[in-house]
Design brief:
The complex is a heterodimer of chains A (337) and B (285). Chain A is α/β, with parallel strands linked by helices. Chain A is 35% helix and 25% strand. Chain A folds into 2 domains: 125 residues, Rossmann fold (3-Layer(aba) Sandwich); 185 residues, 2-Layer Sandwich (Dihydrodipicolinate Reductase, domain 2), CATH 3.30.360. In chain A, the strands form 2 sheets. In chain A, strands 8-9-10-7-11-12-13-14 form an 8-stranded mixed sheet. A 6-stranded parallel sheet of chain A has the order 3-2-1-4-5-6, with helices on both faces. Chain A is globular, with a radius of gyration of 20 Å. Chain B is an alpha/beta fold and 285 residues long. Chain B has a single domain, classed as NADP-dependent oxidoreductase domain (TIM Barrel), CATH 3.20.20.100. Chain B has an 8-stranded parallel sheet with strand order 1-8-7-6-5-4-3-2. The longest helix of chain B has 20 residues. Chain B is globular. The chains are: A alpha/beta (337), B alpha/beta (285). At the A-B interface, helix 1, helix 2 and helix 8 of A face helix 1, helix 4, helix 6 and helix 8 of B. Chain B: This is HpcH/HpaI aldolase/citrate lyase domain-containing protein.
Chain lengths: 337, 285
């Protein structure tokens, strides 16, 4: 059994805790939150050992692995504390506020041979995995443009007051929402290297932006646009969509389907001339415990499997996440100019 | 329970195979009249149970159902809570802010003694208050089965907080005089857990379809558990989000001895008629 400790029992922490609680190879050996309301609930209704001080949990609970789902500004010190004690770490996204910390922690984890992962769950979605596979096969020919979008209904009024609405804590649409979209661009299309024309728009929030619009350039020369808005109530929940244009066709994908348009049929892939639509139902593998989308279970299964089977390459490492943190810094700088 | 139950996902843009279709549905059902028209069609086709989430807009539908005699034989199976409402509120307002917003009156006055301190000690009472609040809109309508949504059932399952599932079960039975139902994506685990907590032969709704979509632990394990007849079972997602042709999908689910009812949602008369007819036909075999 892998003994996992969980720091932070907000929305994501609860979700991870439930999935790990049902995992046959995991024992939740400690949960930690600074909120009295939450930790009292866990003390009374769960059988997990409860802590309010994360250092105490790490020191006392004899952990193999740590899951960090606290506000972003605490990630760096918590990750460091875990790595220092030779514990494998899964950290929620975005990874850290200062990209230099990210590089240091990534190197430290690798040097110690510890499994390290960041919660970019889109990398575990059947539809996006299929897009990556198809693009690697070159089905669109030379690609010349992409549009990466995420929209959802988080901040819809001029009020609110959690850490997500505070600038220096990793709140705001850029850190919370756009980080997913940027990571997806990196996962599917290539490493972002430069950004331009960045607009960070505050719609209802005062301290932070509610929308992010920018142009991006990737290492491989491909360029495209980023459009993210968390004050868009025409979406029932967060939806992320990627559109890729190539000389041989076009591809549009979201969490539920992949739509491919080809000028000529691709026989190897069984893709017709014109439109082909692939659905999640055909692209997703069943999980052992389902809470809220296969990808949330899959990413934790992957983390545990990397710990159990040395040598498995992690699909969403600290190193990958650091690229997204660096891109976020570039977007912030560019928006100021 | 009736053999055929009519669902509401189509009305609120819930579509498990296409975000684009879900947006189109949201536009189509923008007005309450459009929802009522489809419900009337379902009634014409011989369906008399509407299983729906406690979405704000259902309150308007309830108002019509309550006041119109033509719905006398019609019943609703409410499913609570409408989770996105709370999830978005937690992101925006935090846990305490969310409790303040959704619990009727001022929570800190509701618990006359001790306010917050009382909430901390007694989450079960808080849960009961929230159940009552969610059910208010159905007052005066027949609601013989009241469900808890899968995201809550499964969250509590994973957390090992079975006590809340028991609280829900008792509260619905005792205060609301209805049969409590559990929606889940983890049927085998749920049944084991409920039985351990002393709940025998519960009412459960789970994904059951020929391709094993959202049947956690695998289709074989599900078929084994279904055949044991340890619960009053409603099958949902029988069409696997549209991945299966209706006839093939319904032939499979109707052949499972141990499935009592089948839940489906549709928007057009043709689809409602076809699905109802296929279920009736295969159920006679």
């Amino acid at each position: 059994m892998i003994r996992v400790g969980i720091i932070g029992l907000g929305k994501m922490g609860l979700s991870h805790c439930s999935i790990l609680g049902a995992h046959p190879e995991v024992e939740v050996a400690g949960v930690c939150d600074t909120s009295g309301l939450v930790i009292d609930g866990f003390k009374k209704y769960s059988s997990f050992p409860c802590y309010t001080d994360y250092k105490k949990m790490i020191d006392q609970a004899n952990l193999d692995a740590l899951l960090i789902a606290s506000p972003t500004k605490f990630h760096a010190e918590m990750v460091d504390y875990g790595l220092e004690r030779n514990i494998h770490v899964f950290c929620e996204k975005p990874f850290v506020l200062n990209a230099e910390d990210g590089i240091r922690l990534s190197e430290k984890a690798d040097a110690k041979g510890l499994v390290n992962q960041v919660g970019y769950h889109n990398r575990f979605l059947g539809t996006f995995e299929e897009v990556r596979r198809l693009l690697e096969k070159g089905i669109l020919g030379e690609m010349y443009h992409f549009l990466a979008e995420s929209y959802g209904p988080v901040v819809l009024r001029e009020k609110g007051g959690t850490w997500r609405s505070e600038k220096n804590q990793g709140g705001g649409c850029l850190y919370d929402y756009a980080s997913h979209t940027i990571d997806l661009v990196y996962f599917l299309l290539g490493k972002p290297t430069a950004v331009s024309g960045t607009m960070l728009k505050s719609i209802f929030s005062r301290g932070v932006e509610d929308a992010v619009y920018s142009s991006m350039e990737l290492e491989n020369g491909l360029s495209g646009q980023l459009s993210v808005n968390w004050s868009d109530e025409t979406h029932r929940k967060m939806t992320t969509q990627i559109t890729v244009m190539g000389k041989k066709g076009k591809l549009i994908a979201d969490a539920t389907e992949v739509k491919i348009f080809l000028k000529e049929a691709n026989l190897q892939e069984g893709l017709e001339k014109g439109w082909t639509i692939k659905y999640l139902t055909d692209l997703t593998e069943s999980v052992d415990f389902y809470l809220r989308g296969e990808e949330y279970s899959s990413q934790l299964d992957h983390f545990i499997s990397c710990i159990l089977n040395k040598g498995v390459q992690n699909k969403s490492s600290f190193k990958n996440a650091t690229v997204t943190d660096q891109t976020i810094s570039k977007l912030l700088e560019n928006a100021k100019q | 329970m009736d053999r055929v139950l009519f669902g509401d996902n189509q009305f609120f843009g819930v579509n498990h195979s296409s975000d684009e279709k879900s947006r189109a549905q949201t536009m189509k059902f923008q007005k309450d009249e459009a929802i009522l028209k489809v419900l009337d069609t379902a009634i014409d086709e011989g369906i008399n149970t509407f299983m729906c989430t406690t979405h704000d807009r259902i309150a308007n539908i309830c108002e019509v159902i309550r006041t119109n005699d033509k719905y006398n034989g019609f019943q609703i199976f409410p499913c609570m809570p409408y989770a996105h409402k709370y999830a978005n509120a937690v992101t925006e307002l935090g846990y305490l802010g969310t409790i303040k917003q959704f619990v009727p009156g001022n929570i800190f006055n509701t618990f006359a003694k001790g306010g917050l301190a009382f909430v901390k000690k007694d989450f079960s009472s808080l849960a009961e208050l929230m159940i009552d609040a969610e059910l208010k809109m159905f007052k005066g309508i027949k609601t013989p089965v009241i469900w808890v949504q899968n995201v809550i059932t499964d969250l509590l399952l994973g957390l090992g907080m079975t006590e809340f599932l028991v609280t829900f079960y008792r509260h619905v039975k005792e205060k609301h005089q209805a049969e409590p139902g559990f929606i889940t994506m983890n049927l085998p685990l749920l049944l084991d857990t409920l039985e351990k907590a002393g709940i025998e032969n519960p009412t459960v709704c789970a994904s059951i379809n020929k391709i094993g979509f959202r049947m956690s632990g695998g289709k074989e394990k599900y078929e084994e558990v279904i055949a044991q007849k340890r619960c009053k079972l409603v099958a949902m997602q029988v069409l696997a989000a549209g991945a299966l042709p209706p006839a093939e999908a319904l032939e499979y689910v109707c052949s499972l001895d141990g499935v009592e009812s089948i839940l489906f949602g549709a928007s057009s008369r043709a689809n409602i008629h076809q699905t109802k007819t296929l279920i009736d036909t295969y159920s006679r075999v």
